[in-house]
Amino acid sequence: MVEKRVQPLARDAMAYVLAGGRGSRLKELTDRRAKPAVYFGGKARIIDFALSNALNSGIRRIGVATQYKAHSLIRHMQRGWNFFRPERNESFDILPASQRVSETQWYEGTADAVFQNIDIIQDYGVEYMVILAGDHVYKMDYEYMLQQHVDSGADVTIGCLEVPRMEAVGFGVVHVDENDRIIDFVEKPADPPAIPGKPDSSFASMGIYVFHTKFLIEELRRDAADPNSSRDFGKDIIPYIVRNGKAVAHRFAQSCVRSDFEREPYWRDVGTIDAYWQANVDLTAIVPELDIYDKAWPIWTYAEINPPAKFVHDDEDRRGSAVSSLVAGDCIISGATLSNSLLFTGVRANSYSRLEGAVVLPSVKIGRRAQLKNVVIDHGVTIPEGLVVGEDFELDAKRFRRTESGICLITQTMIDKLDI
Q1: Which of 76, 136, 217, 375 stands the most exposed, by the fewest C-beta atoms within 10 Å?
Q2: Is 299 helix (H, G, I), strand (E, B) or coil?
Q3: Annotated binding site for alpha-D-glucose 1-phosphate, which residues?
Q4: Which CATH number is correct for 310-416, 1.10.540.10, 1.20.1530.20, 2.160.10.10, 2.60.200.40?
Q5: For residue 401, how far is the Cα from the chain centroid?
Q6: How far apart are alpha carbons 189 and 167 in whole angstroms?
């Protein structure tokens, strides 16, 4: 990893987080909230990772563009990210799609979500713009990417993740030369271009872009004047710069933040029920791939005032216990047994119930004798006494949202339809 400059570039940068996406592949989990607002890791929301990366990198001006069902997301940011102070040259702007440019126009694409707020960006007078997706889980120091951008003289620097070549078919893929200059950018190619010297690997775009602010504004205005544009970074802005300017790839491994316990660079798109369940359950491992206990790079979030978790009863078949599990504050495990499970704030698990591989969102009540395996339970659900999930796959599929790999998403609406 390269040495940082004495004077960090991050202090003259603005992080602009694109957080307007629905995340439809998460199904009912995003019926009431945008994907960046979905809970993750026992305490946080998904967006907290991008925001924490920006803050920990030294960036003190942040804007967040919201659109789809944004109330939960906005409320979270108002509560958990309200500590920025203008007198310290800090700012945190929540930028809903509010028809500021046209009375009939919402954000038409990711580029348009920045274009419509150009005046706000200009008011801050920042030298650099770091454009971020608000729906990925990772730890990254953006200062290294800013330094590469300046040193290379690039028009745009794109954060890139090295993936097995044939797994790149679902990504935007960058084709680079031996100097990491991008010579082509293709969305979801059937035959992804390989990294020079690594025929079995490709670079997938992480949706992270660094620009000089002046150049970005010029490009956004040019794109906005193009009637054939879809107003999107990945589809329009980036391919245009690749063809007509200088685009450079930044290797995630060079700026990924890792504690002593993290062996490989960690990045996850938790955009499906399976991926969301897996990433949360992975945290219950003895040495998880993602270290959320790393105090050198904290994941900032809304810190609720809650009592500690509580475990009660100690009979042979009625013992409040948890093995290889994460249990947040204000949970009461009353004679229930947990294994490889993650419980968010305020969960009540009652006697004789058993949870294995369960991701339980806040304020869920688990009835007595419930047996739940490989489930994601939405916020505020009341699980009836004696409910069994994870044993009869056909019955599960009729009652709940069951994936092909056997993970069941459970919502209150699904519970209300049960004939039990």
Answers
A1: 217
A2: coil
A3: 107, 172, 187-188, 205
A4: 2.160.10.10
A5: 22
A6: 10
Mean pLDDT of the chain: 95
SS3 label, residue 270: coil
Q: What is the pLDDT of residues 207-241, one digit of tens each?
A: 999 999 999 999 999 999 999 999 999 999 999 99
If residue 40 lies in a helix (H) or strand (E), which one and from where to where? strand 39-40
* Whole-prediction pTM: 0.95
Domain 310-416 in the same topology as domain 9-284: no
346 vs 350: CA distance, rounded Å: 13
**Measured on CA atoms in the order 364, 34, 83, 158, is the torsion positive or negative?**
positive
Tokens matching residue 322: 């948890």
Task: Identify the bridge partners of residue 45 per DSSP, sorted by sequence position.
Answer: 39
pLDDT at 101 over 60: no
Residue whose C-alpha is closest to residue 338's, from 320, 361, 315: 320
Alpha-carbon gap, residue 280 to 258, rounded angstroms? 18
Residue-wise pLDDT tens digits, 35-85 = 999 999 999 999 999 999 999 999 999 999 999 889 999 999 999 999 999
Residues contributing to the annotated binding site: 107, 172, 187-188, 205
